[in-house]
Predict the structure.
Amino acid sequence: MEETTIKGQVICASSNKYTVDFENQTLVIDARGKIKYKSGSVLTGDYVEVENGAITKIYPRTSRFIRPNVANIDTLLITISDPPKPDYMVVDKLLLSANYSNVECALVINKCDLSEETANYCKKNYNFLPIFIVSAKTGEGIENLKKFLSQKTVAFAGQSAVGKTSLLNAIFSTDYKTGEISEKSERGKHTTTGSRIIKLNGYKLFDTPGFSEIAVDISPEDAVMNYPPFDKKLSKCRYPDCTHISEPDCTIKSMVESGDLSRDRYERYLTIYEEIKKDYSNRYANKKY
């Protein structure tokens, strides 16, 4: 019997079942061999080779994220709102991960009809990013966001109940199920349980589950080189391997003191750097920092 091999893209990964989009059809299929038994080996967004109804090969990725667990995106839309209270540590870790992966980032502030405080904070502390101030409920800012998304492969990422799925509904006039805020914890409840690609009207957008914590799987050196916008100022420090912590003549520390760089983001950088250094040292015990 002749074997048939075709290439497609995974548009939804759930347990060991994968929804794969081909040029003229969409099928739910399994994986085979090592791919089947290695947890998390197939991600939403992966381009795969399918042979006789099973995934047998994953093609090289242009980008890969742990949270959200997606591959082959070119733009990350970090989405926040109030409520729930924004977790800027999550925002800065996502920015670091995206910059390391050469993925474009933008910041989306949803629910602008409820509060201006978050938008004002972000315009002050994240002025190096494209910022979209929107309301999925009222439609404010949706058209500008929609124009930005054109011709891009985009993943929404952020905490639960910030309105990622609501924004998709506002953009596409769809009716996907959305989450809500827990009155007890003031945190979002998970509604989207797995990442999925939504293709409509020429757009390709990833809807992803919310999360409250994120680890950054890179080295301490890469953290220094990729924390935006500090990475653009690194060459001005006295030492080329400056970590912006205890070294003299550090441009970053001077700019923080003068108010040219955000002190809040610098403090979060220190925390993130120490987390990465500790994790890296635990995994690679022979490497000293």
The radius of gyration is 21 Å. The chain has a mean pLDDT of 88. The first strand starts at residue 5 and ends at 14.
